[in-house]
Write a structure and sequence with these properties.
The complex is a heterodimer of chains A (127) and B (506). Chain A is α/β, with parallel strands linked by helices and 127 residues long. In chain A, strands 2-1-3-4-5 form a five-stranded parallel β-sheet, with helices on both faces. Chain A contains five helices and five strands. By secondary structure, chain B is α+β, with helices and mostly antiparallel strands. In chain B, a hairpin with a 5-residue loop joins strand 6 and strand 7. Chain B starts with a helix and ends in a 9-residue tail after the last strand. The chains are: A alpha/beta (127), B alpha+beta (506).
Chain lengths: 127, 506
């Protein structure tokens, strides 16, 4: 059975790139366009990993991550935060929110895939 | 002291120009000097007058003594002349008696105080002369015995009386001179005290005046100076309080106005700068979002996610990717530079290994050097101490220098050397490229200044990299420079303290 990844991202192109990339790598992709929808989708589909954008309408990626990590059931799901600014301090905020890893834009799809695989197969981490 | 402070305040509040106040003060002091001089002169004149008075008295005494002496000798010569009965002697005696009478008359001009005494003397003398004249006539008419009786009964007591009167004259004027000396002494003492008191009063008044006028000018100048120091240090909130109603008061008002205006402008500038930084941050995000999508799609296509692209298409996709990355580099550099200029770039100071930093950069650029068939080597001194600084930013600096070296070198080699001396790291990036003319060596660290702008287009690059590198090195308290000669390659160096604990100003 293919592993399921939840992509929380408000930008359609970015969502599509991730979907195309991850689908071609044989992952099942669930999409959410904002924080609330992301939390609902996480609860409904129990993904194996969540890719979380920071700049989201409504509750932002930091807050969504905090809520996920505070949830008794969902806290075990690895969250990779995608920071949009290359500003000093964002990585610190992402860690403080409780994410498992972060990757800053601009990222190359190949790097992202490597990072995703690292968290999905702990027995055989890549890169 | 409180009185003086009150006076200072009072003078400060006088609505007159500083010039007028100073003039008034100096005039007052000049008038005081003139007054002291006048009082001294007045006292001196008094002393002189009393001295002259004493001299007159002295002369009078001498005159009286002369009269006393002359009277005695007259009386003696008269009594001896009457005894001799010689006609010639008698005549000469009578002449002398009359002559002496005139002398006594002249005394009237000096003896103003003894008029009554002198009148009595004169009266007695006249009586005496009359008796003697009578007696002389008796002798001449042969009544010598009657004449002698007349002399004994009438002239002798008169002679005694005349002698007493002259004694009284002398005594009285001697008493006068003693009294005069005493008066003069007392007058001198009292005038001495008047002069001393007047001089002391004037000195105290002049000092008080000088003190008040000086401090009424110095106080506001000091207050304004202190305020200007605060303004110079960037504090625009306080006001200077000056009570003066002269030029200094006007100056204080203007200083306050200037400070307020500066404060307002400073605030505007700060707000504008914040807006600018925020705008740039937002802008760069907005620019990067679609660019990320473009780069993402290009990479997916190159990775054959959407099917195998043709060789021609692959070339175009690679060009698309290269240009997209260049644009991303430009956006990042502009953001970095604007943050540095706004003083918003803060270093994340942490421990790092310079060796690891160099090797990280080497592995990132090695493929580029290999592509241009350049020899590429890195010499890192063994046992480098653990550094402290912003590793990510320092990597950015080295990456920029090495990237440039590879970009501008067509054959030969690019080398990195890193070592530590005296608590400072030195990193050198040497190439065998075209070199930089001396005139351009300072310019290349300025924004948008490459040695030749046509190279910018040919080689790609933002023209901001070295400027950013310079700022980052300087924020670490270090220095960056280049040694180069056209045709002989370039050697870029930067040094920085091994342990950077505090960020230096931008």
């Amino acid at each position: 059975m293919s592993q399921r990844i939840l992509v929380v991202e408000d930008q359609e192109d970015n969502r599509r790139i991730l979907r195309d990339l991850l689908t071609s790598a044989d992952f099942e992709v669930i999409e959410a366009a904002d924080g609330e929808a992301g939390l609902a989708a996480a609860a409904a589909h129990r993904p194996d990993l969540i890719l979380m954008d920071i700049q989201l309408p409504g509750i932002d990626g930091y807050e969504a991550t905090r809520r996920l990590k505070a949830d008794a059931v969902l806290h075990a799901i690895p969250v990779i935060v995608v920071t949009s600014y290359a500003l000093a301090g964002d990585d610190g905020k992402a860690r403080a929110a409780g994410c498992d890893a972060y990757i800053s834009k601009p990222y190359s799809p190949r790097q992202l895939l490597a990072k995703v695989r690292e968290y999905l197969s702990p027995a055989a981490p890549l890169g | 002291m409180r009185v003086m402070a009150g006076l200072v305040g009072l003078v400060a509040r006088v609505p007159a120009r500083v010039q007028a106040k100073l003039l008034a003060a100096f005039l007052t002091i000049a008038i005081l000097l003139i007054l002291v001089g006048a009082v001294g002169l007045r006292v001196l004149t008094g002393v002189n007058e009393r001295t002259e008075e004493l001299i007159k008295l002295q002369r009078k005494i001498e005159a009286y003594r002369q009269v006393q002496h002359d009277t005695t000798s007259q009386l003696y010569s008269v009594s001896s002349a009457l005894l001799s009965s010689d006609d010639a002697t008698l005549s000469s005696t009578l002449r002398q008696l009359n002559q002496f009478g005139y002398d006594v008359d002249r005394l009237q001009f000096v003896a103003k105080d003894e008029v009554e005494l002198l009148a009595r003397f004169r009266q007695s003398y006249d009586e005496f002369v009359e008796i003697v004249t009578h007696a002389v006539e008796l002798i001449r008419t042969g009544h010598a015995s009657e004449a002698r009786e007349m002399q004994a009964v009438q002239a002798a007591p008169l002679a005694d009386r005349l002698e007493r009167l002259t004694n009284q004259l002398v005594n009285k004027s001697e008493a006068d001179i003693v009294a005069g000396i005493e008066t003069s002494k007392q007058a001198y003492e009292s005038s001495q005290w008047i002069v001393i008191a007047f001089a002391l009063g004037s000195i105290i008044l002049a000092l008080a005046l000088g003190y008040t006028i000086s401090w009424s000018l110095i106080n506001p100048v000091k207050a304004i100076e202190a305020r200007l120091n605060q303004v110079a240090a960037g504090n625009f909130t306080h006001r200077v309080e000056v009570i003066n109603r002269d030029e200094l008061g006007a100056l204080a008002v203007n200083v306050n106005k200037m400070s307020e205006e500066l404060g307002r402008l400073y605030q505007q500038l700060e707000t504008a700068s914040k807006h600018k930084s925020q705008f740039l941050a937002n802008m760069s995000h907005e620019l990067r979002t679609p660019l990320n999508a473009i780069l993402g799609y290009a990479e997916l296509m190159l990775d054959s996610i959407y099917g195998e692209p043709s060789e021609k298409m692959r070339t175009v996709l690679e060009r698309l990717q290269a240009n997209g990355r260049h644009l991303l580099g430009l956006i990042n550099d502009v953001l970095d530079l604007s943050k540095i200029e706004a003083g918003q770039l803060t270093l994340s100071l942490d421990d790092y290994s310079l060796g690891d930093l160099v090797h990280g950069v080497v592995s990132a650029v090695e493929p580029l050097a290999a592509e241009k068939r350049l020899a590429f080597k890195a010499e890192v001194a063994p046992d480098l101490p653990t550094g402290r600084g912003d590793e990510r930013r320092l990597s950015q600096v080295l990456l920029n220098l090495v990237g440039n070296a590879i970009k501008f070198t067509d054959k030969g080699e690019v080398a990195i050397r890193a070592f530590a001396t005296n608590g400072a790291f030195t990193v050198a990036v040497c190439d065998t490229g075209s070199g930089i003319p001396a005139a351009d060596q300072a310019k290349i660290f300025e924004e948008f200044q490459q040695a030749d702008s046509s190279i910018t287009r040919a080689k790609g690059g933002t023209g901001l990299g070295l400027s950013i590198a310079k700022r980052i090195v300087e924020m670490h308290g270090g220095r960056i420079w280049v040694e180069s000669e056209p045709g002989k390659g370039s050697r870029f160096y930067f040094t920085l303290p091994v342990r950077v604990e505090v960020q230096a100003g931008p």
